[in-house]
Amino acid sequence: MAFQVLFLTLKTLKESGHEHVYNAVEKPLLLAQSAAVLEASEKYCMRMPNKLNFSFDYYYAAIAILGFYVPGSPHLYSYMLSQRKRALSKSKKE
Fold it and tell me: Which of 49, 57, 59, 94 has a CB 3.0–4.6 Å from the CB of 39, allowing a cystine?
């Protein structure tokens, strides 16, 4: 039930023209959802010992990306708005 409400809310945001807000909300939620699935399935994991003596867990990589994406979203959003304002002001002068 909660996922249906979330899906409909995201769909409404997307269709109303607020794609930047939709992307800022959708991407972290999808990444968190996929991280939970990857943690349970251990898919795309390379455990040690192996030929390369290298260990990689996609779950921790997804959490690290999420850790960078969420705090950076307000900065990216404000930058996008300033660029939009600049582009619109140039078109008015012409």
Answer: 59
Tens of pLDDT, residue by residue over 17-49, are 556 666 777 788 888 888 888 888 888 888 888
**Closest listed residue to residue 65, CA positions, set 19, 33, 28, 38:** 28
Domain count, the chain: 1
Token pair belonging to 87 = 């582009």
The whole-model pTM stands at 0.56
Residue ranges of alpha helices (H) inside the chain are: 2-15, 19-41, 58-93
13, two tokens: 């945001």
Write out the two tokens for 76: 């990216």
